[in-house]
Write a structure and sequence with these properties.
heterodimer; A: alpha+beta; seven-stranded mixed beta sheet; B: alpha/beta; D-Maltodextrin-Binding Protein, domain 2; 10 helices; elongated
């Protein structure tokens, strides 16, 4: 978390959100203001254009009517008797161009000022005689008569008759209208012709009834150039329409159809956008005011909502804290002020950690309890086994003790039989000399042999019983000078016969290689015999198992050897049984480790052996094995 | 001899006059119908100097092979064909949307190679060396405000309406709304078109509103209750953005069905003409080629623009002088 974040989390959420809302609001306000401005301007602009489009035909009709009025006025004037009489009087008179009369006030053959005000105000009114020569001219303004008007071509007079004609005179557009003056009998006496330059004044008079805020320009159709303008100061004649500034809207660019004209033009309306600016200037502040009120209401409402939310967040954090303390046993922590959401987030993170930790603890406890339970079960099994063994030991000791007495009789009497048979043979030899009955002698010798055998086997049975008694004894014995080779030989045989007696098809053979120089060693024989018996039982068991599993070619074998190493003696037990897996080699001396099925082994044999060799005799016991090949236990015992 | 020639000449004039005006008046004779065509033999007198003058384009046109002004009515119809011709011939043609009056004015000044008119040729249009070629005729429909309940009107009733003899639609079986005639009395120097309704502008009621432009006329017709006017359906359709109007059938004959006009049952129509120059210093082979091109292609486009092409007119007995339509069928 960087410095800014650290600082930020100290600020309450409500304050932060209100600040953010105000900041965003200001930004949105600015953007909306721009958009609104554009939209409002666009709407006003559209409305203005629509208004212009609606007004354009009205302006055009007004203009059209003014043009038509030229014809109407002429049609009235040419029917006046005064003008007919005047032209009739002129008929046949000699006339030179220099004789053209000019009037600055309306002549009697033309409409008076008051009538002109009701109709039109032509710039020039020309009275032409029957030969279409200009005789008299009324100047309706200060402008002098353009010379071409004095020599109007015949076709122009014809085309301008009955409908106005738009032509160009000295580079300016002129509206020309003519009407023949006829006397009774349709004789054409002359022509009354009106000519007006289509300029600012023309437009002003034509559109006098219309609002002046709309500027009218007539634009050439073939190229968008202003021909006539009602406001030549802003939009002078000759200006290209595309150069009309952005402060003016253009509309009503309709093709203006004229009855007869040499040129064609568009009737264009221009209106200043200042009206839009004015409307926008009125409208926008109002909108802003309402928006401000709305924003304030919104911010207050938002603050209240935020306050309510943060209070709920605080409550939630507090609930979590309580839950944590009560359910998970967490220590009470100081409530973090500032950003409530951040505090909740942190508290929630801590809760997660606490839950995970608690879960881990519970899991460990369960595991330990399971382990204890297993240990108890194992111990229980061991106790049962030990109890069984103890019972077996007691039983064995009892049986051995009971057998030992009769066995002593057997041995003693066998010995006596042997001795007696020897004495009897001597007596017979003394009595009969060389003539002893051969058959009797054979019987005596046979008796002697049998007695000897009974004695030998009896002794052997006695040794076994002694060993059984020794093994069954629970208490550790004291050190005695012991013939290791003899002890070893005795227990090899005991183990061998024990296995052969219990296992069918037992084919394991054993060999021994005893070093005679080993001699007599001071050991605790009953404990060491347990070691020998454990190792040998395992070896016979392993070789037998492998023998059962393998084909006939396998020869199970155990080799037992001793070796004098000077101050130590070495005892090796080698077998070609199934071997010990590498991973198990380090575990075999651990208590209760066994690979045998339940009930077959206690897992205590080798651990007990290890304890006897290493702790009681300060020797060493280790194993070498190759799984599937062999196993060899090596015992090193100090001679003293 | 001269007298004989003069008599023959006068006789021909009389026969021609009789043929033209008797045919045009035949179908709708009530004394109010104006002439449908002018006399093709009556050429406007012009000074010799003028006659010798070649065509000289307006300086604003620049250097082009042909300069043409086409009437508004014909422009949408002809402009693509002219452009196509220019492309095919690889020539430069200046083409401008215009009016009959403007074409006439520019032809007077010999600034155009070709002009185009939406009306039959007028007396003042027949300039020396100028030849007219009719591309077809098109019905003029009586257009009314969409609220006008009537769908059909007789020609006599229509004339009464425009004369002001009938001033309310209720007199014709419609609503009790005042009739407001709104139209354009344009091309006053030419026969035909509105003159087929009423021969003289003086016959139109003083309450008639004369509107200068077609768009304004459509706009006013569509926005003025009780309004009635006249224009082609093509024009009404072209300016429908100004407003929607409806048309009336005349005595049961629809302006949509050109067969009624072809058989002269439908009474009001426009004549589409284009012009070329003939004679020394005036003839332009591209213009002649374009005329032939247009006459050829107008046959294909006729149905689309509800125009009756010259071939059909000739078949139906309409009278031609060269390429120019000069009379209705007998």
């Amino acid at each position: 978390m960087n410095t800014i974040q650290k600082y930020l989390v100290r600020i309450p959420l409500t304050l932060k959100m209100i600040t953010l809302t105000v900041m965003v609001g200001v930004g949105v306000w600015a953007v909306l203001d721009q958009i609104l401005n554009r939209t409002v301007t666009g709407i006003f602009r559209t409305q203005l254009i629509e208004r212009l489009n609606r007004q354009a035909p009205i302006y055009r009709l007004g203009f059209n009517r003014y043009v038509f009025t030229h014809n109407r006025l002429l049609q009235l004037l040419v029917k006046q008797q005064a003008i007919i009489n005047h032209l009739q009087q002129q008929e046949g008179t000699i006339f030179e161009d220099m004789d053209v009369k000019y009037y600055k006030r309306p002549p009697f053959w033309f409409a008076s000022q008051s009538i002109q005000r009701g109709f039109i105000s032509p710039r020039f009114a020309l009275l032409l005689d029957g030969n279409e020569r200009v005789r008299e001219v009324y100047l309706g303004g200060q402008m002098p008569l353009p010379p071409p008007l004095l020599k109007l071509p015949k076709y122009l007079i014809e085309l301008s008759t009955n409908e106005s004609y738009l032509t160009t005179i000295e580079g300016f557009p002129y509206l020309v209208t003519s009407e023949p003056v006829r006397a009774t009998g349709e004789k054409k006496l002359g022509t009354l012709l009106l000519a007006s330059p289509m300029d600012e004044e023309f437009l002003e008079i034509a559109l006098a009834e219309f609002p002046q805020e709309i500027i009218v320009v007539l634009v050439r159709s073939d190229k968008p150039q202003i021909l006539v303008s009602s406001d030549p100061e802003q939009f002078p004649v000759g200006m290209m329409l595309k150069h009309v500034d952005k402060d003016h809207l253009i509309s009503g660019q309709e093709f203006f159809e004229w009855g007869s004209s040499e040129m064609n033009f568009k009737f264009v309306l221009l209106v200043s956008t200042r009206e839009i600016e004015s409307l926008t200037a009125q409208f926008i502040p109002e909108v802003r005011r309402y928006r401000l009120i709305f924003a304030l209401v919104f911010i207050v409402s938002f603050a209240l909502v935020m306050f309510s939310i943060t209070r709920r967040i605080k409550q939630l954090t507090q609930h979590i804290e309580e839950f944590s303390q009560k359910a998970l046993g967490s220590e009470k922590q100081k409530f973090q002020s500032g950003d409530e959401l951040f505090a909740l987030e942190k508290r929630f993170d801590r809760l997660t950690e606490e839950v995970v930790s608690s879960n881990e603890t519970i899991r460990k406890e369960i595991k330990e309890k399971e382990k204890s339970l297993n240990s108890l079960r194992t111990a229980q099994d061991q106790l049962i086994v030990q109890e069984k063994l103890a019972s077996l030991g007691t039983l064995t000791a009892g049986i051995a003790h009971e057998i030992k007495n009769p066995l002593n009789f057997v041995v003693n009497f066998a010995e006596q039989i042997t001795e007696l048979s020897e004495q009897l043979e001597e007596q017979l030899k003394t009595i009969n000399g060389e003539q002893n009955d051969e058959e009797l002698l054979r019987l005596l010798r046979s008796l002697h042999t049998s007695g000897t055998a009974v004695n030998r086997h009896g002794q052997r049975a006695d040794k076994i019983i002694q060993a059984m008694l020794l093994h069954a004894r629970e208490q550790s014995g004291e050190t005695q000078l012991t013939d290791i080779n003899a002890l070893l030989d005795e227990y090899v045989k005991l183990s061998f016969h024990s296995m052969r007696a219990t296992e069918q098809m037992f084919t394991t053979t054993w060999t021994s290689d005893f070093d005679d120089s080993v001699g007599i060693v001071e050991v605790i024989p009953q404990d060491l015999s347990r070691v020998f018996l454990n190792i040998l039982n395992n070896a016979f068991h392993a070789t037998h198992e492998r023998s059962r599993a393998m084909e006939n070619g396998f020869k199970p074998l155990i080799q037992v050897s001793t070796k004098n190493l000077g101050d130590q003696i070495e005892i090796r037990f080698w077998d070609n049984g199934k071997g010990i897996p590498k991973e198990n080699q380090k575990k075999i001396f651990e208590p209760f480790f066994t690979t045998k099925s339940a009930g077959d082994g206690t897992g205590l044999g080798l651990s007990l052996s290890y304890e006897i060799v290493v702790q009681e005799h300060q020797g060493s016991l280790h194993v070498e094995s190759d799984e599937g090949e062999y196993t060899e236990f090596i015992i090193l015992l100090p001679k003293k | 001899m001269r007298k004989i020639q003069a008599m023959l000449s006068n006789g021909l004039w009389i026969v021609s006059f009789f043929m033209i005006f008797s045919s045009s008046a035949g179908a709708h004779e009530d004394g109010l119908r104006g002439p449908a065509f002018s006399d093709p033999k009556k050429i406007h007198e012009m000074p010799t100097e003028w006659q010798k003058r070649p065509v000289q384009h307006d300086s604003s046109v620049g250097k082009v092979d042909l300069s043409i002004d086409i009437n508004q009515q014909l422009y949408p119809f002809l402009e693509p064909l002219v452009q196509q011709y220019a492309h095919e011939k690889n020539i430069k043609i200046n083409i401008r949307e215009s009016t009959c009056g403007r074409s006439a004015g520019k032809l007077f000044r010999k600034e155009l190679d070709m002009g185009a008119f939406c009306c039959p040729t007028g007396d003042t249009d027949r300039l020396p060396g100028l030849r007219f070629h009719t591309l077809g005729i098109i019905p003029i429909a009586l257009l009314v405000h969409p609220d006008v309940a009537l769908n059909d009107i007789s020609l006599a009733q229509a004339r009464d309406v425009f004369q002001g003899n009938i001033s309310r639609w209720s007199e014709l079986g419609g609503k009790n709304i005042r009739i407001k005639p709104i139209a354009s009395l344009h091309c006053k120097k030419r026969p035909g078109h509105w003159r087929l309704l009423l021969k003289d502008e003086e016959l139109f009621t003083s309450k008639f509103m004369d509107v200068g432009g077609m768009p304004d006329q459509i706009a006013l017709l569509s926005s003025t209750r009780g309004a009635i006017g006249y224009e082609t359906l093509n024009t009404a359709n072209r300016f429908k953005h100004k407003g929607i109007v409806k048309f009336l059938t005349i005595e049961g004959f629809s302006p949509e069905d050109t067969s009624f006009l072809l058989s002269a049952k439908y009474p009001i129509y426009r004549v589409y003409n284009i012009t070329t120059w003939e004679g020394e210093n005036l003839r332009n082979p591209y213009a002649e080629g374009l005329v032939n091109y247009l006459l050829q292609h107008v046959e294909n486009l006729a149905d689309k623009y509800t125009v009756i092409p010259p071939s059909k007119l000739k078949q139906a007995g309409w009278k031609f002088d060269g390429n120019e339509l000069i009379g209705e069928p007998m």
